[in-house]
Amino acid sequence: MTSPSTIAAATWRHARIELRGHLTGWRLLAWAVMPFVMVITVWTLSGTPVKSSTIDLAAYLLPGLITVCTTVTGMNSMIVQLASAEEDGSLLRAKSIPGALAAHLWGEICVVAALSLLPLVCYVAVMALAWPDLLPGNPLAWVTMIAVTGLGMLATFPVSVVIGAWCRRTLRSMMLSMVIYVLAALSGLFFPLSLLALWAQIPLQGLPFYWVGLGLRTTLLPADIVAVEVTQSWRLELTFVVLALWAIVGLALAPRALRHLSRRQSASVLAATRDRFLARGY
């Protein structure tokens, strides 16, 4: 039985090495795209009021942009990276070392969390200089925003491990990422969910993206905008409950999904994967 301290040390080494690769060279530019898009969006829409209200359109879209930057993009990154780890042999190597699978899982979660928060920090820094009125105005709102964002990542990243274990191939995981982006967009991140039919509202409210966006709207939007929400209330307590349930389920299933995925790994499977890449290119 591998001790927790050994797993923690291996997790730190894994995360440090992975982050060094992501934050150096051309790969860093890929993570700079999202804050750049967010800043351009706010700059373009700033000063444009939402129809029949006095709220700025940039302010209304801000919670959705933050949700996409952290939970949605991070979740998709986890799915793609797990599929890549299966195809490049990383999971096969981890399978032969005691505690390496757990370290790989937690290391990847730490890496994706750091890479999701880094663009957000850069974006908030620019917002604080250019549009400070769009950011939370009191410490409690800041604490709530940080708590919702952190719990949102904890609710989605482990679940993405379960999804990634099912995908298996990088191409399939990329196609699924598009589906996740569409579901997130439909979850009321950029328009009131109440505009959709009731049959669509109910299942979309089961997704964590909706609750992360709702929690962020609680801290970033004026109180009177709550009238366009589904129940005309922020439901902040229920937000934390739903996200906590997603986190518990994900953390319970993620290690099992990773072990199941590793059991499928073998030298012959890896060789067949490489032959497929050479023959098809994917």
Give an overview in words.
- There is one protein chain.
- This protein is 77% helix and 0% strand.
- The chain has eleven helices and no strands.
- The chain has helices at residues 4-22, 27-45, 57-87, 90-95, 100-130, 139-167, 170-189, 198-204, 208-220, 236-263, 267-280.
Radius of gyration: 20 Å
Describe the sheet with the most strands: none
Count all strands and give the number.
Answer: 0
Helix vs. strand class: mainly alpha
- H/E series: HHHHHHHHHHH
Name the overall outline.
globular
Mean pLDDT: 80
Strand content: under 5%
Distance between the termini: 38 Å
Query: Approximately how much helix is present in the residues?
Result: over 70%
Number of helices: 11
Flag low-confidence runs.
none
Give a brief rundown of this model.
The chain has 282 residues and is an all-alpha fold.
Structural topology:
Elements: H1 4-22, H2 27-45, H3 57-87, H4 90-95, H5 100-130, H6 139-167, H7 170-189, H8 198-204, H9 208-220, H10 236-263, H11 267-280
Helix pairs in contact: 1-5, 2-3, 2-5, 3-5, 3-6, 3-7, 3-9, 5-6, 6-9, 6-10, 7-9, 9-10
List keywords for this structure.
single chain, mainly alpha, 282 residues
